Amino acid sequence: MINAFYLARALKTFRPHHQFLCRGYSTHIATGNTACEDHEPSFLKSVEMYFDKAAGISGVSQKTLSHMKAPDCMLKVTFPIEIKDKVEIITGFRVHHSRHMLPVKGGIRFATDVDEQEVTALAALMTYKCAIVDVPFGGAKGGISIDPKNYTDAEVERITRRYTVELCQKSFIGPGTDVPAPDVGTGAREMAWIMDTYRQFHPNEVDSIGCVTGKPIPLGGVRGRNESTGLGVYYGIREFVSYPEVQKHTGLSGDIKDLRIIIQGFGKVGYWAAKFFEQNGAKIIGIGEKECGVYNPNGLNIDKLFNYRRSRGSFLGMPNVDIIEDPLENVTS
């Protein structure tokens, strides 16, 4: 734990050189674990580069750093699922990056670009994030390599429950061991299926409901969970622009009402972040999603955008906005 603290302190004070920053290491812009551009590092490599830079000023021995950098254990499972009279082989992953504190914590994502390297990188980031803010969890991450939109609800449930069976059999889930959470492509519904499957394997555990977070409120979930990450983005930006040195270098006043904001992504995090900025007087002028981006220099109505995209599955055709075919143009131009 003490070594994790020293690394966390180094990570707090470390300011990465600009050469390591690209348009985005988001695994939704790049495909799988590939880089945004040929000359850029992969997602996992970029995480390791940041670790090495911070480790260099941490004062922790190289032997200890080597152990902290490598994941503790990785699980890869494959299992057959019958889909429309055909048998499909589903691949899933779960990585425990560091079990210096238990339980380990990290989301489960459903996306076609899920692979071992992506999950490993995200698990490492969970370890470092928990250490930086002194939350007593180790880091983990998991995922299934599917696009849930290509399956019926019943098929997604079967896949989720079958994946959970694998986690149960390999001791990769449990209130005191590994507590997953929602991530890309998953939500309260999937967490409820995971919890229910786990409880079937552990009917006598009084705390079995704690095997997963992000559950529906009637099943033991926490109010405010859905908007919490987006609210964290708002708080982070609000505090960031309050620093005089930031205001000096950017020309910002420090008042949220003076901000003009572009957001990349309009899912569970992006939507709520936009909502909180809008409610507090900021002007959201652009939003990028995977199919396109929208832009209006006079400001976007977040609820209208959300309802339009939810009903049609895309921003395309939205009135009173400029449609930008390349969603990164919003961010880079």
From TrEMBL:
Pfam families reported in the protein's UniProt record: ELFV_dehydrog, ELFV_dehydrog_N
GO molecular function terms noted in the UniProt entry: glutamate dehydrogenase (NAD+) activity
Family, as annotated: Belongs to the Glu/Leu/Phe/Val dehydrogenases family.
Domain Glutamate/phenylalanine/leucine/valine/L-tryptophan dehydrogenase dimerisation: start-end pairs: 71-199
Record-given protein name: glutamate dehydrogenase [NAD(P)(+)]
Matches recorded under InterPro entries: Aminoacid_DH-like_N_sf, Glu/Leu/Phe/Val/Trp_DH, Glu/Leu/Phe/Val/Trp_DH_C, Glu/Leu/Phe/Val/Trp_DH_dimer, Glu/Leu/Phe/Val_DH_AS, NAD(P)-bd_dom_sf
Organism: Gigaspora margarita
Glutamate/phenylalanine/leucine/valine/L-tryptophan dehydrogenase C-terminal domain sequence ranges: 220-319
Cellular component per GO, a single term: mitochondrion
Gene Ontology BP terms: L-glutamate catabolic process
Keyword Oxidoreductase appears in the UniProt entry: yes
Record keywords, A-Z: Oxidoreductase
Superkingdom: Eukaryota
EC number(s) reported in the record: 1.4.1.3
Main enzyme class: oxidoreductase
Swiss-Prot/TrEMBL catalytic activity: L-glutamate + NADP(+) + H2O = 2-oxoglutarate + NH4(+) + NADPH + H(+); L-glutamate + NAD(+) + H2O = 2-oxoglutarate + NH4(+) + NADH + H(+)
